[in-house]
């Protein structure tokens, strides 16, 4: 009885842009691919700001990873959070609730993404949540819509204007899009339904270390 030939196994940690791009690039390769992800979905981060401002629901920007890769025969998606990587034994240990799985690999690709950085000022997170996950976007949505509601019930014009003033730190694509969307939310979406808010339209400001950080958008803001 002959032993089946060993098939090269590539383990990919993460199902974001990097992880899925790597998996798809191996579609026609003579390898087995295992994608390990702690979430069931692939998050399209560039549209998080639209979830934060109530334009899109979270499901619209987070299709399931298995659905995306369903036609790729050499790939398997394993749900779990990676706990350890043993380079000597060439294994990855992941955990899903109380179940641990050890996955061997011949090649390993780590595409686990990044965390929000406050540049040594982590206490800022309490007042200014980042924009990296669905939970971040939903937290921002609650704060933005909550500010409009608080302004609506306030009888103090100074307090109302304070509630309708938003500061966005960072003038990259996400910061500029968020700032513009807040203004649009006030002018188009809420103006007809929120009498006081329509009379005191929300304002938003972008703060950045680089005055012309996004020249592509800068002209429309000058």
Automatic annotation (TrEMBL):
SUPFAM superfamilies: FAD/NAD(P)-binding domain. It is an enzyme of class 1 (oxidoreductase). It comes from the Bacteria. The keyword Oxidoreductase applies. Gene3D superfamilies: 3.50.50.100. Keywords: FAD, Flavoprotein, NAD, Oxidoreductase. GO terms for molecular function: NADH dehydrogenase (quinone) (non-electrogenic) activity. Residues 9-187 form the FAD/NAD(P)-binding domain. Its EC number is 1.6.5.9. It catalyses: a quinone + NADH + H(+) = a quinol + NAD(+). PANTHER family: EXTERNAL NADH-UBIQUINONE OXIDOREDUCTASE 1, MITOCHONDRIAL-RELATED (PTHR43706:SF47), NADH DEHYDROGENASE (PTHR43706). Belongs to the NADH dehydrogenase family. This is NADH:ubiquinone reductase (non-electrogenic).
């Amino acid at each position: 009885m002959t032993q089946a030939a060993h098939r090269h196994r590539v383990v990919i940690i993460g199902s974001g842009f990097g992880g899925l791009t790597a998996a798809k690039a191996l579609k026609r390769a003579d390898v087995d691919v295992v994608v390990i992800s702690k979430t069931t979905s692939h998050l399209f981060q560039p549209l998080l700001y639209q979830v934060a401002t109530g334009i899109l629901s979270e499901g619209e920007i987070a299709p399931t990873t298995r659905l995306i890769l369903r036609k790729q025969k050499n790939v398997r998606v394993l749900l779990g959070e990676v706990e350890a990587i043993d380079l000597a034994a060439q294994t990855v240990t992941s955990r899903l609730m109380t179940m641990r799985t050890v996955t061997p690999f011949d090649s390993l690709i780590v595409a686990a993404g990044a965390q929000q950085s406050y540049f040594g000022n982590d206490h800022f997170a309490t007042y200014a949540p980042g924009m990296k996950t669905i939970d971040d976007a939903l937290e921002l949505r609650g704060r933005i819509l909550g500010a409009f509601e608080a302004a609506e019930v306030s009888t103090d014009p100074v307090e109302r204007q304070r509630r309708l003033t938003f500061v966005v730190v960072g003038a990259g694509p996400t910061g500029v899009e968020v700032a513009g969307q807040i203004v649009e939310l006030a002018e188009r979406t809420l103006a007809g339904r929120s009498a006081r808010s329509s009379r005191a339209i929300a304002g938003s400001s972008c703060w950045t270390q680089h005055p012309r950080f996004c020249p592509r958008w800068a002209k429309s803001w000058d």
